[in-house]
Amino acid sequence: MAIHLANRQLFIDGEWREAVLKKRIPVINPATEEIIGDIPAATAEDVEIAVDAAKKAFSRNKGKDWSSASGAYRAKYLRAIAAKITERKSELGKLEAIDSGKPLDEALWDMDDVAGCFEYYADLAEGLDAKQKAPVSLPMETFKSYVLKEPLGVVALITPWNYPLLLATWKVAPALAAGCTAILKPSELASVTCLELADVCREVGLPPGVLNILTGLGTEAGAPLASHPHVDKVAFTGSNATGSSIMASAAQMVKPVSMELGGKSPIIVFEDVDLDKAAEWTLFGCFWTNGQICSATSRLLVHESIASEFLDRLVKWTKKIKISDPFEEGCRLGPVVSGGQYDKTLKFIATAKSEGATILSGGNRPKHLNKGFFVEPTIITDVTTSMQIWREEVFGPVLCVKTFSNEDEAIELANDTHYGLGAAVISNDPERCDRVAKAFRSGIVWVNCSQPCFCQAPWGGIKRSGFGRDLGEWGLENYLSVKQVTQYISDEPWGWYQPPSKL
Description:
alpha/beta; 7-stranded mixed sheet; 6-stranded mixed sheet; 15 helices
């Protein structure tokens, strides 16, 4: 299928702008390994220009053009962006699929979610107006107090490649709704749809400098952006190593950050389940988006009494997954995003085998696909808690399995991780589900399912999965500061000091 990639530049101050050093990065189709275009590679010089544009846009006309305008005013732009995304859904979905490797059906679903997220934050932007000057109850009648919610300022939004446009939207939409101005730096491995978002912003007339989009390498564009003294906050989704580096640089300026840093999430399957329903949710929880999900429930804990039968059923389900070019009808597993990710995933599998685990299913390149970064959906058993495959995030279609004998053991194994993003429990006992949900040490819990995500509900983790929340009202709060305003309303003098004697 011929997909045209527009030759885009950086988007700064409402205009396309060539990178100062004129460098570009090739775009590789992960299904064919062919170069299909290129994107601009921003550097510190471009970051300087973009931050300056965002800073000026924040304060332009004393903020009346954006930051201190009404939420209703900003909501009109968010709704216009949502409408354009819907209008261009088919084109954007195809670009997402060819750039990231995700099946076309998933990419089109993502575009619906992108539009829905902009609509949702348009509603919350309008709601902000009514919440301004919320009164604070005080114990002294001589004072009255209220609270203002104000945008934090210029924000840096650094996003990953597994949901290129959707995860960018999770940050862009609430940041703009709050009245911030922003610089978005998507991953260099999948930036094409984020540059199309820039085109959408131009079409709807978003004020210049409100959203700037810099593509490029993390070391050359992301690092100078995160450490820039005029950036007031950094919101980051990505690896622990990069998140730690961003936190260290932000600490020098006492700059707020919010972090979503992935996980090694568990899914517990108890003995009272419908085996086929549980098998499908187990596969979806780990193999959706080609296994490249920060919240993937990639550690299966199954009750020992059903383990043999359940794993047999799981393998049969896995064999039915269609692995193909993302554009083929019925594709349910495409390639991982890059050659580097392909090599990393196969190395994880090889290490698991060398440490004594059993590759129950998959573990190789699919025999019918000679090109592309394809990895079979893989199930690994005979895993111990000291193995790399149990402890480290793969970010590929790899599920590791352990059995348990009772609920307490299952919970202990589930929480045996440095991460704390997601967790799932599958059981027909509602009380047990409630107990396990409460016992999980994670920011998200799924009951009798895995991975559903709604923009109305908070998203984020604990422990090394990060802190702060995207989505819902919590996502908007990420980009707002709270200002207390207290007024003395008595006609009487304060009377603390002895007044000077009257002449």
